[in-house]
Amino acid sequence: MLGQLLALLSDGRFHSGDELGEALGVSRAAVWKHMKKLDELDIPYSSVKGKGYRLHDAIELLDKEGIQESMTQRLDCLDILLDVDSTNTWLFERAPDHLGKRYAVLAEKQNSGRGRRGRHWVSPFGKNIYLSYLVTLPGSLNDQEGLSLMIAIAVERALARLGMDGVGLKWPNDVYLDGRKVAGILLEGRQTQPDFCQIVIGIGLNVALSDRDAERIEQPWAALKQYLPGVSRNQVASVLLDQLGSILDEFKREGFGPWINHWAERDIYYKKDVILSGGSEPRIGVAKGVNRKGELLLHTDRGMEVIVAGELSVRPVN
Ligand code: BTN
């Protein structure tokens, strides 16, 4: 019911309680009750006597059939949720029942979206992409070297497909537009049998994030609509799901190795002075790209050091 009500209101125009009630087959009072649920989802709307209800911003709701119809790659299961704590947590809990399956979930809103290094991921309703994608891969969790970088490349390729030029990558797996972060990736895995593991690939991609939504973000951020104002969230979702499907096939065939140069060409800190933090002590050096395992090569005064992703992050030396 809530989904149907949102679909009716998604144009951002006024709709009277009578009109909505008729379309939904319920009373005006029931419409009013459902409108209260929009408060719980933090969806701003107005209610004006004699006019009805109107969302402050028109919303393009995610459309499962539309996304599936535009896709070309294999996906066994796709779910779309109105709101959820975290799509990664939701899918991880269901992973044991879906061994061998490619299963994706998208949400309109996350109440506790999770980022790397224990950070919160800002996830307001109907604005961005919050996607988790479950895949089963041969080998142990430790064998999946470079996977998170490949996922960043899948996002970068999806953005290029949508018409974005100059998409940047930041080790280990952030995606940048003009020096500002547009997408982040959080991988979580479980070993199922000695020779197979399941990975939940979480991707947050800002599409229509506003200044108000972004107040809590502590770093420069970008949103796709700042560059491609007419971009459709459903189109972004289907292109991204396709790119994930194909890059996972490529990763299974050849691993990260063939992508080293592709990474270097888009690496925003390549050959730059950087500080690496998050470890026991910050390290300063020149970023020299990545190796076949997706590890960072950092040229410091001690020589070439190989940095494993873990919970580290890099930033430029100013
Ligand atoms: C980062 O810190 O850069 C990673 C952000 C990952 C956010 C996505 S949104 C979908 C999925 N569900 C989550 O709770 N987190 C990931």
Architecture overview:
Helix 2 crosses helix 3, helix 4 packs across helix 7 (about 235-255) and helix 6 crosses helix 7. The protein folds into three domains: about 1-55, Arc Repressor Mutant, subunit A (Orthogonal Bundle); about 65-265, 2-Layer Sandwich (BirA Bifunctional Protein, domain 2); about 270-315, Roll (SH3 type barrels). About 30% of the residues lie in helices and about 30% in strands. With about 325 residues, the chain is α+β, with helices and mostly antiparallel strands. The chain has helices spanning about 1-10, 15-25, 30-40, 65-70, 85-95, 145-160, 235-255, 260-265, and strands at about 45-50, 50-55, 75-85, 105-110, 130-140, 165-170, 175, 180-195, 195-205, 275, 285-290, 295-300, 305, 315. The chain has eight helices and 14 strands. The strands form three sheets. A seven-stranded mixed β-sheet has the order 3-4-5-9-8-7-6, with helices on both faces. Bound molecules: biotin. Biotin binds near residues 86, 119, 202, 203 and 204.
